[in-house]
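Re: Re: token formats

Sure, here are both.
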Amino acid sequence: MHCIIEYADSRHRQQVIALWKTVLGYTAAHSEPGLSIDKKLAMQDGLFFVAAADGAVVGTVMAGYDGHRGWLYSVAVDPSQRKQGLGAALVRHAEQALSARGCLKINLQIVGGNDSVSAFYASLGYVIEPRISMGKKLGQNIPWPAQAG
């Protein structure tokens, strides 16, 4: 059985980093797990959650909220824990936290061609929208050489 709780840096950091490297395979400098955790914690918004089972981190979700739209990031479930509803529970937990803050709409991004992840989110009510995602890296804030991604 798992429980979803707010991330606590001293207890969860190394386990979350290991999970993200396994599941999300971050390769871009701006997505380095330790940096992502530090930047999220600096926001002090209470929107970073972990799923724990027997004292181990087995899933994560980060959410963001700008006063209008919410975002989901870093939804990850340990491969040994998949197909048990944990990913859906993490997403629903983040949705409830965003809704409690008055969020009107939740967005997320996935890598193109990732059909299984797209199907997962579709099963939770998310739809592909006709949008173009654009981004700009601010290299001065990335502490090590930026790579593609």
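Second one below.
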Amino acid sequence: MSSSSTGATAVHSDRVRRLIYQASYTGMKETDLLLGHFARLHLPGLSDADLTDFENLLAAGDPSIYAWVMGNAPLPAAYDTPVFKLIKEFKNNK
């Protein structure tokens, strides 16, 4: 493995760790539990583009995320990503 790919792997790992932490402490217990558990299981295997989609989703805020995941509010097109679909599937299979 080249040093540049090792560096990229380290950056990816750091990003995943940061996102797992953020997902686990969003501020709303329901989303903390759902997103934190999802993040620990799925984020390490996601691409950088998928991690960006997850980051963007976190930035939307807990009340919105919770409403979208539970189906209580329509999901805006900007958040209708493969990552969101994975979260919904994860929630439905829990």
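The radius of gyration is 14 Å. The chain has a mean pLDDT of 92.
- S.
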